[in-house]
Amino acid sequence: MNIKEATVEYLLRLGDSSLIIGHRLSEWCGHGPILEEDIAMTNIALDFVGNATAILTYAAQLEGKGRSEDDLAFMRNEREFRNLLLTEQPNGDFAQTTARQFLFDTYLFFLYEELKSSKDETLNALATKAHKEITYHLRHTTEWMYRLGDGTEESHERIQQALNNLWMYTSDLFDMNEIDQLLIKEGIVPDLLHVKGKWEEHVKKVITKATLKLPETNVKQKGSREGKHTEHLGFLLAEMQYVHRAYPGVKW
Amino acid sequence: MESTQWPVWEVFVQANPGIQHKHVGNVHAIDSEMAIQNARDVYTRRNEGVSIWVVPANAISASSPEDQGSFFEPSNDKVYRHPTFYKIPDGVKYL
């Protein structure tokens, strides 16, 4: 595998993760706990879909096989998606969405912070733009972690349960393979061990302040790097891709 | 009946640095930090501002409609309170 191919693969990880979590958040549209939070979540969903568009456009260009960003988003099947397992997990209740978002936003915040100094200039520019948006997302979800954790007995219990449920997908965030090794050497992407250290520190700090407990489990779910997903992704894709596949090239 | 709604916050947005914050509406939120975030998402999505103030709606004291007569009507017949009432003498500069 050459550098270009490795970069395309890495871009799919980033773009697919944004696309899938953006779609998940968009499922909240009209169902938010209050109007203001409904707007906040769909706002954040739009940020993610916008970010996915930019990254997948670059991936398609670099790949040079005549595919567009829409082809990548709507014409690939489950096993071809490289999004993190965490991003495809169902919304559940508001606590589950908040916990998922918090764990993911913290990850993206530190990952994109590193990508801002990527030697790939386009990726570097995309990361700089995305990092501003992610800074706000992280602030929003961090504040919710405090309020749910240190809120009522019920909110505390629900957010703790959500963290416990999702914890096994967090090792997938830092899984590295030969693509990482190749791109790290070229100064294009960061070593995820480095990101992991910062992620753990922030997550621990917030969880403690929110009067919650760090989940303890030895169960680890990985596989997104090879396109091995949980059972939830197929259903999500069916809904997300249906219109595009039923009416190829449709415009409105 | 106990209210299940979160407190209301009045939102003021400053469009550009140096000018006054203008009242734009209100949001529900559990505290001031979340009120600022909600205001950001509801009122500044299209580049409307550079600064947000939120104020608990119950911290605002208002004049009542019954006061309208005694408060505001007396000024109607005092045209000399408006600058346009006065003629500017010829030769006055910098006015």
Compact description:
The complex is a heterodimer of chains A (252) and B (95). In chain A, 67% of the residues lie in helices and 0% in strands.
How would you describe this protein?
The complex is a heterodimer of chains A (252) and B (95). Chain A is mainly α. Chain A has a single domain (3-246), classed as Ferritin, core subunit, four-helix bundle (Ferritin, Up-down Bundle). Chain A has helices at residues 3-26, 35-63, 69-74, 85-88, 94-115, 121-149, 153-166, 178-185, 192-209, 232-246. In chain A, α1 (3-26) packs antiparallel against α2, α1 crosses α8 and α5 (94-115) crosses α7 (153-166). The longest helix of chain A is centred in the N-terminal third of the chain and has 29 residues, at 35-63. Chain A is globular and about 55 Å long. Chain A starts with a helix and ends in a 6-residue tail after the last helix. Chain B is α+β, with helices and mostly antiparallel strands and 95 residues long. Chain B has two helices and three strands. Chain B has helices at 32-43, 68-72, and strands at 8-14, 22-28, 51-56. Chain B has a three-stranded antiparallel sheet. In chain B, β1 and β2 (22-28) form a beta hairpin. The longest helix of chain B is centred in the middle third of the chain and has 12 residues, at 32-43. Chain B is flat and about 60 Å long. Classes of the chains: A mainly alpha (252), B alpha+beta (95). The A-B interface holds A 34-37, 39-40, 43, 136, 139-140, 143, 147 and B 6, 27-31, 33-34, 37-38, 40-42, 45.
